[in-house]
């Protein structure tokens, strides 16, 4: 029983990291139709800058940890906003060029990060409590998993409130449904595009800091490894659906943990799940089917 609890909670923690990356991917594709392959770079840069901020302040306390989270989120937000303004905005409705540019940025950023911070992993020091465990019915759960789950829940709740209650949230939701109608009403939807990129980058940057504590290190390849599963989560949940991304993150994280523990084939099982969902429901669990 303790093993099942441990795998379930650690799977939820891993799924929380996937969601923090997938939420931005889902928003960006849902409004803008942009498959952003550079999204992992937002996560990696946020993790590195957050780590350096913690190092400068003296890593170890909760205050420093929270500051590093804020710095990581701000870094991801700024990098994402600049990416949209400089690289993506001139290429709207040119999907092949968008893919090439974001793939190119992803590869170039990894080389840049390796040049600045080196290719070896940099190990993370955080609050002592994060390295400890909590006993739940005999299962010793690493505390950093609870922090990741809490952060993902807060991000999901904040994004849903923003989309449903704020003016820009309503513009974004309307743009997802009918972008041309929003433009015809005289609303500058480009500001919403930049805002969506910024929000997605902030979530990814925060996820980068949390991922560095989850895995115990930060490296130039951290974002790329998480981006693969974030894309899988986004597709399974339904492109453009935040709730779908959240549900898919939970399913993928837990399934991956159980399959890795019992059979050592977690990644393969996740790919099988992706194939099964696409065959049974091509639009994803909560995506809208496209009619001819």
From TrEMBL:
Q: What membrane topology was assigned to this protein in its record?
A: Multi-pass membrane protein
InterPro entries, sorted = ABC_transp_permease (IPR001851), BCAA_transport_permease (IPR052157)
Q: Where in the cell is it found?
A: Cell membrane
Q: Its domain of life?
A: Bacteria
Membrane-crossing residue ranges in chain numbering:
6-27, 34-54, 60-87, 99-117, 146-163, 192-215, 227-254, 261-280
Report the main location listed first in the record: membrane
CDD domains in the record: TM_PBP1_LivH_like
Which terms are listed as keywords in the entry? Amino-acid transport, Cell membrane, Membrane, Transmembrane, Transmembrane helix, Transport
Family as reported in the entry's similarity comment: Belongs to the binding-protein-dependent transport system permease family. LivHM subfamily.
Which protein is depicted? Branched-chain amino acid ABC transporter permease
């Amino acid at each position: 029983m303790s093993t099942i609890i441990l795998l379930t909670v650690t799977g939820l923690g891993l799924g929380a990291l996937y969601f923090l990356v997938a939420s931005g991917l889902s928003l960006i594709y849902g409004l803008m139709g942009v498959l952003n392959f550079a999204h992992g770079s937002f996560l990696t840069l946020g993790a590195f800058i957050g780590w350096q901020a913690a190092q400068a302040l003296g890593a170890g306390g909760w205050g420093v940890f929270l500051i590093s989270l804020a710095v990581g989120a701000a870094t991801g937000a700024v990098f994402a906003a600049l990416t949209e303004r400089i690289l993506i905005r001139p290429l709207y409705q040119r999907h092949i060029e968008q893919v090439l540019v974001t793939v190119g940025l992803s590869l170039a950023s990894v080389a840049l990060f390796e040049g600045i911070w080196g290719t070896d992993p940099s190990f993370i020091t955080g609050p002592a409590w994060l390295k400890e465990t909590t006993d739940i019915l005999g299962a010793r759960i690493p505390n950093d998993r609870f922090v990741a789950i809490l952060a993902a829940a807060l991000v999901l709740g904040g994004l849903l409130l923003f989309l449903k209650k704020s003016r820009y949230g309503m513009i974004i939701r309307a743009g997802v449904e009918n972008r041309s109608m929003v433009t015809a009403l005289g609303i500058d939807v480009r500001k919403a595009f930049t805002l969506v990129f910024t929000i997605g980058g902030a979530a990814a940057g925060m996820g980068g800091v949390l991922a560095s504590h989850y895995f115990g290190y930060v490296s130039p390849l951290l974002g790329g490894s998480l981006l693969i599963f974030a894309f899988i989560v986004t597709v399974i949940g339904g492109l453009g659906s935040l709730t779908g991304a959240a549900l898919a993150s939970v399913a993928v994280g837990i399934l991956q943990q159980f399959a890795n523990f019992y059979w050592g084939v977690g990644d393969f099982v996740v790919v099988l799940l992706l194939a099964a969902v696409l065959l049974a429901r091509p639009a994803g669990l909560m995506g809208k089917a496209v009619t001819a």
